[in-house]
Every structure is written in C-alpha cells, then in structure tokens.
Specification:
The complex is a heterodimer of chains A (299) and B (122).
Chain A (H helix, E strand, L loop, with lengths): L1 H27 L3 H14 L2 H5 L1 H25 L8 H85 L3 E4 L3 E6 L13 H17 L4 E6 L7 H21 L7 E5 L12 H7 L2 E6 L5
Parallel strand pairs in A: 3-4
Antiparallel strand pairs in A: 1-2, 2-5, 3-5
Helix pairs in contact in A: 2-4, 2-5, 4-5, 5-6
Chain B lengths: L1 H49 L2 H4 L1 H19 L3 H42 L1
Helix pairs in contact in B: 1-3, 1-4, 3-4
Classes of the chains: A alpha+beta (299), B mainly alpha (122).
C-alpha cells in the first residue's frame, strides 16, 4: 500500500518535471527577431492610415506574408522535423519589419506631399502679394522721383528768377550780401524824399520782381525789413519816419502776395549810417531800407 | 556472370551521369534565379539612391549595400540559398530606403517652401 502511494507520488512529480522542462524548452525556442517583427506588425496592422493607403496596404501585405513565412520556418525548426537554417526565420522577420516601416514611410510621404501642395499654393499667393507690393512701391518711388524732379525744376526756375531779380536790384543800386543763412539786400537807392515814406514809383518794378522771386525761391523764409533815415530831424521823428519807410516796403510786398506773417519791419532811425550825413549825397544814401531774407539755408 | 556485372556497372555509371546532369542543371537554375533577383534588388537600390537615399536614409541604404555585397559573395561560393536570403533583405532595405528618401525629400522641400514664404512675407 505504501509502495503504491509512493509510486503515485513519484509519477506525479515526474509529470510536473516533464511539463516544466517542456515549458522551459518552449521559452528557449522563442526567436527574438520574430517576436520583434510580430510585435511591430501587430501594432500597425490596425492602423487605418496604413490600410487606407493603397501602397502602404501593399507593403503591409508583404510584411504579413514574410511574417507568416518566418513563423512557418520557426515552427519547422522547433518541431525538429526539418533541419532548417535558423537564419530563414531571421531574414523573413527582417523583411517583414522593413515592409512595415516602408508602409509607415509611405503614409508620412503622402502626408508631406499634401502639406507640400498646400504650401505651394500659399507660396504662390505670397509671391503674388509681394509682386503687388513691389509694383505699388515702384509706382510710389517713380511718383516721388517725378515729384522730386519737378520740385528741383521749380527750385531751379525760382533760383533763376531770384538771380534775375537781384541783378535788376543791383542795377538799381542795391547791394547784395549772401551769408550762410541770410540774404541781405540793401536798397541804397530806394530813396525816399525827405520826410516821405512811400516807395517811389521808379523802384516799384524792382521791388515787384523781387517780391515774386522771393516768393518762389524762399516761400517759407522770414523777411526782416529795416528802415533808416539820415540825421536830419529829431531822433523821435527819425524813428517814426524810418518805421514808416519799413512799413511802406512791407505793405508793398504784402500787396504783391507775400504773407504778412513772414514779414517783420523795424524803424531804426538814423542809427547805423552807411554814409556821411554831412553831405546831401551821403544823407540820401542813409535814407535806405534793408531787406534780409532769414533762414535761407536748406531751402 | 561477368556480363551481368558489366551491365550493372553501365547502369550505375549511366544513373550517376544523369543524376550529376540533373544536379548541375538545378544548380544553374537556382543561380540564375538568385542573380535575377539580385539584379532587381540592385535596380530598386539605384532608384532609392537617385531619390536621395544616401542623404535622407543613410543607414537603410548602407544596410542594402551590405546585403548586396553579401549576396554576391555567397553566389560566388555557390551558396545560393544563403544568397537568396541576403537578396530578399537587400530588396526590403532598398524599398524602404526609396520611400524614406522620397519622404525626406518632400520634408526638405517643405522646409525650403516655409523659408521662401517667410521671406516673401517680409
């Protein structure tokens, strides 16, 4: 009886040992390359993006076929029925993996092509917009160049007119002095009769021409008009008279279109004589008006 | 008795000759098949290289070249079955390299276009 129990126990232990040995044998027969390829294929076979794409689906089919072959070869080897080279499993597993990767790459490539088409359209419209911008800028540049040329032409004409007016003034006995930022015209012969403050008719044409030329050449410059007298009469009288003479010229210029805001007049009486007050000729020269165009630089 | 022995020898020699011829013929067919497959794989690899595989899929194309060289060596040694395996691996690499190269090329174009658009928008 004891022998029978002992026999049964030994038999059971032997069965357990055989099962364990078989399980261990199965585990050791696993092929790493095959497992890896199988995992990669399984992870991707349900990917709709791969299966919807005709070419990718073709690669997946090839991967499936190679994987099946690898499994079949593996089975033949592990069943000991066939003396097959284990590399038959590895190479087919490798082929399967490369095909799955190719399927994924095809989908990436197609996505990139879609993006590329979108970007090409975007580039074309950006190019068109740039061409329009360039054309507008070019048009503006040309207009500005034309305007600048016209302005330069206008300045040249004005400069010519002023030179001509100054030449006439010189002929009338005026003295012209030009410094960096000021044009000073001294009308020595813009003679006023004694105690008179009106511009003599013979000088009106000269002043008229000058007013037009100054308006053209220096349309924004300030003008200062200073009136002087000879020493005849009291200081108070001379101050008043010189003021009236300056105002007379100012009024004349305003009448010719110069803005009153640009014009300033002062009466300086008998100060700053330019000739002797002892002779009638000298006194005539001292009865004068000086006209200064200020801020000529840059205009 | 001697006649029978002579006949038997003739039969044996004849059979051996037929077997050898058959073996040689099978061997030649196998070699031709492997060489033909190798030619196909090389064409795919060349296409991949034209698509820029050396730039965009350097590892894959290197592996493809390695398997081609391996297959050629194995063919020379008459190991056609081993050569066939290498050819299949070379082909799989070549196909993958071609797609990777095309994809890489598109991505490079995308990058270029993005830069061009940014420059046009300035």
């Amino acid at each position: 009886m004891n022998n029978a129990i002992l026999f049964r126990r030994h038999t059971m232990m032997l069965a357990v040992a055989v099962c364990a040995a078989l399980a261990a044998g199965c585990a050791s027969n696993q092929n790493a390359a095959l497992l890896h390829a199988d995992k990669l294929y399984s992870e991707n076979r349900a990917d709709a993006a791969l299966m919807k794409n005709e070419k990718a689906a073709g690669y997946m089919a090839a991967a499936s076929k190679a994987l099946a072959k690898a499994k079949h070869n593996h089975q033949l080897i592990t069943s000991f029925d066939e003396p097959l080279d284990p590399r038959e499993v590895d190479s087919m597993a490798y082929v399967s993996e490369q095909n799955v990767l190719a399927a994924k790459a095809i989908v990436s490539k197609d996505a990139a092509e879609g993006e590329l088409a979108k970007l090409k359209a975007e580039r074309d419209s950006a190019m068109l917009a740039k061409q329009e911008r360039d054309a507008t800028a070019e048009k503006k540049r040309k207009e500005e160049a034309l305007a600048a040329a016209a302005a330069q032409q206008e300045r040249d004409r004005a400069a010519l007119a002023l030179a001509s007016a100054l030449e006439s003034a010189k002929k009338s006995g005026a003295e012209i002095q030009e410094s960096a930022n000021e044009l000073k015209i001294t009308f020595r012969n813009l003679t006023f009769d004694t105690n008179q403050a009106s511009v003599k008719p013979q000088f009106q044409a000269t002043l008229d021409q000058l007013a037009g030329a100054l308006q053209q050449r220096y349309p924004a410059a300030k003008l200062e008009i200073r009136g002087y007298t000879d020493s005849t009469g009291s200081d108070q009288h001379n101050a008043k008279l010189s003021e009236q003479r300056a105002v007379a010229v100012k009024t004349f210029l305003i009448g010719k279109g110069l803005s009153a805001e640009r014009l300033a007049s002062r009466g300086l009486g008998e100060t700053n004589p330019i000739a002797s007050n002892d002779t009638p000729q000298g006194r005539a020269l001292n009865r004068r008006v000086e006209l200064s165009v200020l801020g000529t630089q840059g205009q | 008795m001697q006649q029978q022995a002579r006949l038997l020898r003739k039969i044996l020699v004849g059979t051996a000759a037929v077997c050898a011829a058959l073996a040689l013929s099978a061997c030649a067919t196998w070699r031709d098949n492997v060489q033909s497959q190798l030619g196909d794989a090389k064409k795919v690899i060349d296409t991949a290289k034209s698509a820029g595989a050396e730039r965009y899929a350097p590892e894959t194309i290197k592996s493809a070249d390695k398997y081609v060289a391996q297959a050629q060596q194995l063919i020379t040694l008459g190991k056609f079955q081993d050569a066939s395996r290498s050819v299949q691996q070379a082909l799989a690499d070549g196909q993958l390299a071609k797609v990777q190269a095309e994809s890489g090329g598109r991505n490079a174009e995308i990058q270029g276009l993005r830069e061009e658009i940014a420059s046009l928008m300035k």
